[in-house]
Amino acid sequence: MPDPDWYTSGLPHIWLPYSQMKIAPPPLAACSTQGSQIELEDGRTLTDGVAAWWTACHGYNHPHIRACAEQQLARMPHVMFGGMVHEPALRLASRLTALLPGDLDHVFYTDSGSVAVEVALKMAIQYRINRGETGRTRLLSFKGGYHGDTLATMAICDPEEGMHHLFAGVMPSQYVVDLPRDASSIAAFEAFLATHADTITAIVVEPLIQGAGGMLFHSPDVLRTLRRAADKYGLLLILDEIFTGFGRTGSMFACDQADIVPDIITLSKALTGGTVALAATVARRHIYETFLSDNPEHALMHGPTFMANPFACACANASLDLFENEPRLEQVAALETALREQLEPCRKLPGVRDVRVMGATGVVEMEKIDDPATLRTRFIAEGAWIRPFRNIVYLTPAFTITNDELRRLTDAIHRVLSA
Ligand SMILES: *Cc1c(COP(=O)(O)O)cnc(C)c1O
EC number(s) (predicted)? Predict the structure, then answer.
């Protein structure tokens, strides 16, 4: 079937993400989605193992989200959030703060994950300024971490993955250290803080799973260690739950498993159930209170044009309805069992270094993957939308994926890695 007009005439004008455009294979043309299926213009259908970059937790086109979205679209797609508020945003703020632990009570909306992290960093820096503390402007983050693609967030990503060398001198320089996960790394972490803590405002970490850095897992103990260290040295703890939030690790939020309360949390990816961009930075009361003052300079100076977009907030409310009315976390628990069973046989395949599963995230780590693009093409030939990167092949399916669909994905992984 020939490519449609819009494809041939439009593609030369498109710049794709993370792609060397000179050699990147031509992208697939998607035309519609349903549940865990993506239909292509050429009539093929792929089973989605990625859930649209970890967002579509209820599957595509869920009728409840669609109904709420259509209603909101008819009533008020957008209105500015400066000096004006609306029901979808306020309802969502009440619901998010009720779901989040402790006194994480103050929601600042943005429109992408990277910007939600930027806002968290600005909050953490201005928190010191507003308290009259000087010299505590730096951030501490971890190797293997990923927090976004903007300049400030790149600076707290893994130095190699974030390609810090390319932007050296332009990006702020931050501390990126090993996660304190065993006796020696805990000792190194403690020693680091003993000398540098008084220059640092906050620790930033993806809790339980470092996603884009390679789906690296750590235990809830690591988060408790970080919370204790933050308390000991007077640092803020920022949890970036953009990947882990909304059930992906098995609990509604990853921090629930460690039973800790961060000072600031960032949410995005699955917030609207994969429907439309929206993000939130939620702060505890003690952070918010340092911004309350008679001094106008103590206000949080940030305000994206489309912040709290009513359409996006309505989709997020609809997504939360589904977490309340459908057995999502039970589905995640069942997925965890199924992923374990079905991916475990890969462990015996040549070149496989590790197989690990947490919640609705299944990972087959290889010694190395020479050519991820070829591997992707093989998965497509199997009818599977699976996107290997670095040295991993992973599944982050919709929580509503059927047993047959999951089986198709795990069979494809086994077949392709066996070949
Ligand atoms: C995806 C992601 C981000 C960035 O979100 P964008 O919406 O792509 O800007 C930040 N942090 C984590 C943990 C993520 O997974």
Answer: 2.6.1.62
- Report which protein residue has its CA nearest ligand 1's atom 6: 113
Question: How many angstroms separate the CA atoms of 44 and 88, rounded?
Answer: 37
| Interval 284-299: pLDDT, tens | 999 999 999 999 999 9
From 111, 146, 206, 264, the mutation candidate for ligand 1 (largest count of ligand atoms within 8 A of CB) is 146
> Does residue 109 carry a catalytic annotation?
no
pLDDT score recorded for residue 130: 97
Select which of 111, 240, 263, 394 is catalytic: 240
Provide the pLDDT confidence category of residue 190 given band limits of 50, 70 and 90.
Answer: very high
Q: Is the pTM of this model over 0.85?
A: yes
Q: What is the pLDDT of residue 123?
A: 98
Q: Pick from 262, 269, 247: which is nearest to 316 by CA?
A: 269
Mutate which of 153, 243, 253 to test ligand 1's pocket (most atoms within 8 Å of Cβ)?
Answer: 243
Q: How do beta strands 279-284 and 138-142 pair?
A: unpaired
Identify the weakest region by mean pLDDT among 207-211, 243-247, 370-374, 398-402: 370-374
Regarding the beta carbon of 62 and ligand 1, being less than 6 Å apart is answered: no
Which entry of 18, 348, 368, 370 is annotated as an active-site residue? 18
CATH assignment of 76-325, among 1.10.530.10, 3.40.640.10, 2.40.110.10, 1.10.600.10: 3.40.640.10
Domain boundaries, the chain: 5-61+328-418, 76-325
Question: Residue 312 has what DSSP assignment?
Answer: H
Active site annotation includes 48: no
CATH number of 5-61+328-418: 3.90.1150.10
Q: Which residue has the tokens 């989709």?
A: 315
Check residue 166 and give its pLDDT. 86
Mean pLDDT along residues 316-327: 98
CA 65 vs CA 68, 86, 238, 323: distances in Å: 5, 19, 30, 12
Per-residue pLDDT at 359: 98
